[in-house]
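Researcher: Here's a chain I'd like modeled. Treat it as a single chain, no partners, no ligands.
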Amino acid sequence: MCLVTVYIEEEGQEKEVMQDVAWIEFENDELLMGTLLGEEKRFHNKIKSIDLLNSSVVLRGEKNPHGDPRSAKKAYPL
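Model: Modeled as a single isolated chain. Structure tokens:
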């Protein structure tokens, strides 16, 4: 069985945000991910890399290009 761990990369660091992901779907501008046990999370991030050999997916952390923290996208599940 091929389950993956999902990380978000922010400021050069990878933070684990979800384990044992069995499926990933694209829905509108979001990624919907789910585990075999039924846990689901939505992310408003883009995929940076998928490494099937090491069972990992890395998402890009969203940064606000204008420097205003009030309008920055969260880099965590919605």
